[in-house]
Amino acid sequence: MSQNQDHLYKDLISIEIRNTCSGILPREAVRGSSVKVAGRDVLATWKLLVALVVTPTLYGFYTFIVVLISFKFFAPISTFCILVTGSYVTIRLYESGIDIYKSIHPLFLSLLPWAKSSKKLRTVREQLSTDITNLINESAPQIYHDLMLKE
């Protein structure tokens, strides 16, 4: 097994914890709050907590196993450094890889010559942007009286 695959398998535990809770926690936050719409802040906080707590705990455990198996002076230190570096690379590649994977299907559909839905979507987005800008320009002075004074 290659070194990269080792890091991927070691990081699968933290990735699986993040993915499992990333679907559950935002739904609970939205359900329990009258203000939240999507719960993205809960998702970002949870991913940060997993990255800051679970990952170093796992690396400490892995380093402890290396100490038990073969105790050489620099083996635990080098193992810990390699694990941390490998984890950072794996997490970065996983996050960007998932984003790329999710964007391939719409990109492929937009490149098809018979896909007119992308042109229609662009015109709808432009019209929506214009409508929202007009609504804000009309409603903002009525809602925020200070806006007229500043201008």
UniProtKB/TrEMBL annotation:
Keywords: Membrane, Transmembrane, Transmembrane helix. The keyword Membrane applies. One of its GO terms (biological process) is phospholipid biosynthetic process. It comes from the Eukaryota. The chain crosses the membrane at residues 48-71, 77-94. The keyword Cytoplasm does not apply. InterPro entries: GPAT/DAPAT. GO terms for molecular function: glycerol-3-phosphate O-acyltransferase activity; glycerone-phosphate O-acyltransferase activity. This is Uncharacterized protein.
